[in-house]
Amino acid sequence: MLRTLPAALPSSLTLVLLIAGCAGKGADSATPNGGGESVTQEPDQAKATVKFENPGGMWMPGQMTAHAETLKSLGLTYDPAALTDPTAFPLGAIVSLGGCSASFVSPEGLIVTNHHCVTRYLQSNSTPENNLLDNGYLAKTRADEKSGGPAARVFVTTAFTDVTDKVVGGLEGVADDKRGGQIEDRRKQLVGTCEGGRAGVRCTVASFYEGAQFYQIEQTELRDVRLVYAPHEGIGVFGGDIDNWRWPRHTGDFSFLRAYVGKDGQPADYSPENVPFKPKHHLKVATDKATEGSLVMVAGYPGRTQRLKTSAEAQQAADWYYSRQIQLYEELIAVMEGIGKLDPKASIAGASRLRGLHNYLLNFRGMRDGLVKGGVAGDKARIEGELQTWIEADEARKAKYGDVLAQMAALTTEKAKTRERDAAHDELVRGSLLLGAAETIVRLADERAKPDDQRRLGMQTRDERDLEQSMQALQANYHPDLDRAVFRLYLQRASKLPEAERPEVLTAIVGKKGTITDLDIDRALDKLYKATKLGDAVVRLEALRAASTKSIKASSDPFIKLALKLKPLNEANKKQSEATTGAMASLRPRYIEALRAFHNGTLAPDANSTLRVTFGTIRGYSPSAGAPVYKPFTSVSEMVKKNTGEEPFAAPKGALDAVSARRFGPYAAPELGEVPVNFLADLDITGGNSGSATLNARGEITGLVFDGNIEAMASDWVFMPPITRSIHVDIRYVLWVMDAVDGADHLLTELGVTPAV
């Protein structure tokens, strides 16, 4: 049964808990995929093992003191205060890959993360003759470890500093269209001061609580990152999209990287002379293995949640945004897969993007269903109504917050009037990798004409190395037929809009108004792709390095000329957006202040790709009211039963043989009598948490989080305790595959594990 909180819920509980208690009663009853009797148990049996109901929350390190007593009661064996310091153990071992999370697991810079987080590493080192995306890779020696390319990064967080007053202090009364620019200028100045010419240090000023609070974050940027080991796709991607976002799972979603630095110990670009990075902290393999009901934590860099958005924004997402994106992703997947079937090189170039599209497609379907069918959007509106009632009940509160929700709703409604045109504009200007490269070159030329401290964020001298390396890295994802086909799709989509909703950039690209046919689009694309030289990485890099007002005006490349043509349209679109954003930025802090006062407790900020900690317990769930409860562990024998020999259920022979011979060694779980594969926990995660270490009560790594469950996709908007679950690969399965299947003995030894199978 899905549990809801009592009607007389105390107002002192956090807003997240208030929201959580009212969700889930209408959750989508998606049919469980596979599993049978071995993965279910009776609801009464499961209820007896549950000791903790997670209220949700992706907590900043500084907020962890508020949870000290809860963590101790759940069995934490070390001082919870350690979790407030990003430089101490265990958080000091947690790193960002710039989109995924990971952690150091040896003093020699060895990093563990998810298999799907190293797709670009596999892609950039693949050929049609040796496709590592399919075959996996194991470096037998350090010399065999393969570069992830010039844009590969590892970020190690070293400091958090509250700079709210320095960013937004004194901006009351500033015009809406000016506020955003002033905030950007202040953030830019803080970043410049923070970095202060320190090599290898990257600083950002991140927004929390919808712009109500800002923190300066310092990180060490490691630029030489290499692929060490990724299992065969029959382990790393077992189940594919059929199993994605679903339970039970049997996926070995893990891989290993290594970070390198110069001989002086400082961050450096790739060089054969570099040496492994020596982290201050690294995680050890769990001695206390995962069991049902035990405490687990995930530390990582979750990307984006929407829990502090308004009900009007949630309703728009439910009514329009997710449906639109789902249709787009379906069309993109069809186009890209069609091109990939014709050319193996195009298939490799598009692999990372295509896997991401499949992942988002399933995620967004679940998100839409949760908001609409699951009633999450309605719940959010009801809760917001309770907030408004609370505000109206007190004259002081009414004077301070009374109009904030109405004003925010009005801005959301106004912005919706141009949402189709705005979305199509964004699609077109980002629709081609070559157009994106050309626009970067044009923008950098413009910014170079200014003093460095007046340049836009991302276009300063500090950014030029990264821009160059991104230009080089683009080559691994570029294929002319693929790029053209994707750009063509975006143009077709825009041309089908009513003329009043078409973005001006469509006319600028195709060269005509009115009826636009596929022939018109193809003629425009012929002019671009037949004459451009930007498909050559050397040409792109030279153009970027030489970018100046003079060189841009003299360029004959059609993509450069198009980027110049689109520049005033982009500027106009940006100015219009800044006015709305600035108006909302003046309202959101009042809204957040009202929320904090309303619940009178600790409020977790929305995820924003900064270091966070979430905690909970290992436990199953019932996917719908009255359904049996899933057991929280799966096993290797279940993986064998699911194996068909055909993708996506095609486990490698070595794994099947090891299971058949019951070569489990020390990796078997006593309660299962065999090796566990994946487990469930009630942790609060989202995209970006992929690859995050799952820590036990000792701070040891007991698994890696890699997925969530389809029934709770809308938890990005409202956390739902009864059904929100995270899916983890058990560290015992990771070690067993390394030992019994792939013979990665040297890596096991580096992890402090003695090979035993």
Mean pLDDT metric? 90
> Low-confidence parts, pLDDT < 50 over ≥5 residues?
1-50
- The helix content, as a percent range, equals 40-55%
Task: Kindly state the number of beta strands.
Answer: 20
Please outline the major beta sheet.
8 strands, antiparallel
Tally of DSSP helical segments = 28
Question: How would you classify the helix and strand content by structural class?
Answer: alpha+beta
Separation, N- and C-terminal Cα atoms: 42 Å
Provide the gyration radius in Å: 26 Å
Coarse shape = globular
Strand content: 5-15%
Pfam families: Peptidase_S46
Signal peptide: 1-22
Function: Catalyzes the removal of dipeptides from the N-terminus of oligopeptides.
Enzyme class: hydrolase
Essential attributes:
757 residues; alpha+beta; 8-stranded antiparallel beta sheet; 13% strand
Commentary on this structure:
The chain is α+β, with helices and mostly antiparallel strands and 757 residues long. Strand 18 and strand 19 form a beta hairpin. The protein is globular.
Précis, in short:
The protein has 757 residues and is an alpha+beta fold. It contains 28 helices and 20 strands.
Q: Helices and strands in order, then pairings?
A:
Blueprint: H1 15-21, E1 40-41, H2 43-49, H3 68-73, E2 94-96, E3 101-104, E4 110-113, H4 119-124, H5 132-135, E5 137-138, E6 146-147, E7 154-162, H6 164-168, H7 176-195, E8 201-208, E9 213-222, E10 224-230, H8 233-236, H9 240-243, E11 255-261, E12 275-276, E13 295-300, H10 311-342, H11 344-349, H12 351-372, H13 376-392, H14 395-401, H15 404-416, H16 419-429, H17 433-448, H18 464-473, H19 480-495, H20 504-510, H21 518-529, H22 537-545, H23 549-554, H24 558-599, E14 612-617, E15 629-630, E16 633-635, H25 636-642, H26 653-660, E17 676-681, E18 693-695, E19 701-708, E20 726-730, H27 731-741, H28 745-750
Antiparallel strand pairs: 1-15, 2-3, 3-4, 4-11, 5-10, 6-10, 7-9, 8-9, 10-11, 11-12, 13-14, 13-18, 16-17, 17-20, 18-19, 19-20
Helix pairs in contact: 7-24, 10-12, 10-13, 10-15, 10-19, 15-24, 16-19, 17-24, 18-22, 19-21, 20-24
